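ESCALATION

Customer reports they have been waiting on this structure for their group meeting. Please prioritize. Original submission:
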Amino acid sequence: MRRSIRFNQSFLFPIFKDGWTISANLALEINTANSITGYRTGDALHAEFQATKRIGKWTVGPVGYYVGQVTDDKSSAYYNNAINTNRFNIWAAGGLVGLRLRARRADVLMRSTNSLQFQWRDAAHCRWLGIRRA
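Update from on-call: job pushed to the front of the queue and completed.
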């Protein structure tokens, strides 16, 4: 059972113009010390990017994301002050294809990304399918 608290603060920066959607979604994950062990996992930054164009019923464009640990872990006497010195950094890029259905009542979106560069974690392959009601 995790006995620490994680705070997330997100910011979304969208631009909509002439059928284009250009956006960046940034989130900072701030971790607190575990109440039992005192160990504190480092904070992480999450960022998602997209630049898509709507052409008739279709939406297409590149998407990508980054997630990485931006501060060091902090150990405690519970672990004899031993610390995990590995930080993780993952960059991924891919594409989005969307189709608007039923006279603008729903969008079906398919997003696919593959890791470009990763450190400490295994390669990530992400497929995402969503339906968004307009």
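Sent to customer with the following note: Residues 6-133 form one domain.
Escalation resolved.
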